[in-house]
TrEMBL record:
<dbReference type="InterPro" id="IPR000182">
    <property type="entry name" value="GNAT_dom"/>
</dbReference>
<dbReference type="Pfam" id="PF08445">
    <property type="entry name" value="FR47"/>
</dbReference>
<dbReference type="InterPro" id="IPR053225">
    <property type="entry name" value="Acyl-CoA_N-acyltransferase"/>
</dbReference>
<protein>
    <recommendedName>
        <fullName>N-acetyltransferase domain-containing protein</fullName>
    </recommendedName>
</protein>
<dbReference type="GO" id="GO:0016747">
    <property type="term" value="F:acyltransferase activity, transferring groups other than amino-acyl groups"/>
</dbReference>
<feature type="domain" description="N-acetyltransferase">
    <location>
        <begin position="168"/>
        <end position="304"/>
    </location>
</feature>
<dbReference type="InterPro" id="IPR016181">
    <property type="entry name" value="Acyl_CoA_acyltransferase"/>
</dbReference>
<dbReference type="InterPro" id="IPR013653">
    <property type="entry name" value="GCN5-like_dom"/>
</dbReference>
Length: 312
């Protein structure tokens, strides 16, 4: 059985959120994304969201389909663009209910990006399904999922440096900064990190930038799925501690907006692993990003496929 949730019905959305909260921390990305939709921080039309469950009153599995903000111009053409997919499933039902929803709810004829997938229980099911059905090609990119407790952050923030280097101004980013951010950041991707998406996040969520004489040197922002993401410092401004300063200030702002602060970092990103530890983040799981391309459809390869998410 596969039922699409009416996102205009707040009672139904709240029921799905209750299930997703029961599956934390593995379900943190779909839980926070749907929380934003419920709160109207992100609207259904911003990301063309669709939510599917096995049953509205006995939920065991949730699949959320959504697009990157600014990527898709209209509902009628969502099939022409990459669809992101977030999944949460009770581990006891991955071999039956999850398989059924994968078959009935996922648009396998277009390019897909499975986001923040639980490596232990859900990734193997997707791999097996795609392989057995010979649906297409896929690549798995593994990340560490981190989360920060507010009480730990408050203690850490007392000892972390808060001194701003001379001549540096720290403030919220402006939408006109988005073009520079995407041009400078080497891990950009039309499907993941576009100018339109960066503008959306700056205008609707939390962000921080470090400037010298009006020039943007370092930035950090909160993504539309609620994850702590997209950090970069231009080469000439590195080793000034700007990334750490922005991370602490942005974290304080995020805690005003949402219950949990979380993010992902590539397994080999030592700098981000170090910053995460310094700030008090704890590892809460291993998550996969699965890039899927259907057979017979040519999709231009990302020049930097090894990091899908910028890190903590």
């Amino acid at each position: 059985m596969c039922t699409e949730v009416n996102l205009c019905n707040t009672d139904n959305v709240f029921t799905v959120l209750k299930f997703l909260k029961s599956q934390l921390p593995q379900s943190i990305l779909p839980w926070q994304l749907l929380t934003y939709i419920y709160q109207k921080v992100v609207t259904r039309e911003d990301i063309y969201a669709q939510v599917f469950v096995n049953h509205l009153t006995e939920i065991k599995c949730v699949i959320i389909l959504y697009s990157t903000p600014g990527l898709v111009p209209h509902w009628n053409v969502i099939q022409n663009y990459t669809r992101n997919i977030a999944i949460a499933c009770d581990k006891e039902y991955t071999n039956d209910i999850l398989l059924d929803l994968l078959k009935k709810c996922v648009p396998w004829k277009q390019k897909l990006n499975f986001c923040g997938i639980d490596q232990r229980y859900i990734t193997p099911v997707i791999e097996q399904f795609v392989t057995e059905k010979k649906l297409g090609n896929y690549e798995i990119l593994t990340h560490i999922q981190f989360e920060l407790d507010q009480s730990v952050f408050l203690e850490k923030s007392k000892i972390l440096s808060s001194t701003v280097p001379e001549g540096i101004e720290i403030r919220q980013l402006k939408s006109e900064d988005a073009t520079l951010m995407v041009e400078a950041w080497k891990y950009k991707s039309d499907d993941l990190y576009s100018v339109a998406q960066a503008k959306f996040c700056i205008e609707n969520l939390c962000s921080m930038g470090a400037y010298r004489d009006g020039k943007l040197l370092c930035w950090r922002l909160l993504l539309y799925d609620g994850s702590f993401d997209m950090a970069y410092t231009i080469p000439e401004a590195r080793r000034l501690g700007l990334s750490s300063l922005l991370s602490v200030r942005l974290t304080a702002e995020i805690f005003k907006r949402q219950e949990r602060v979380f993010g992902y970092t590539a397994l080999n990103n030592r700098n981000s692993l170090g910053l995460a530890a310094k700030m008090g983040f704890r590892e809460t799981g291993i998550s996969d990003w699965i890039q899927f391309e259907p057979i017979g459809i040519y999709v231009k390869k990302d020049l930097h496929p090894h990091i899908l998410k910028s890190s903590i």
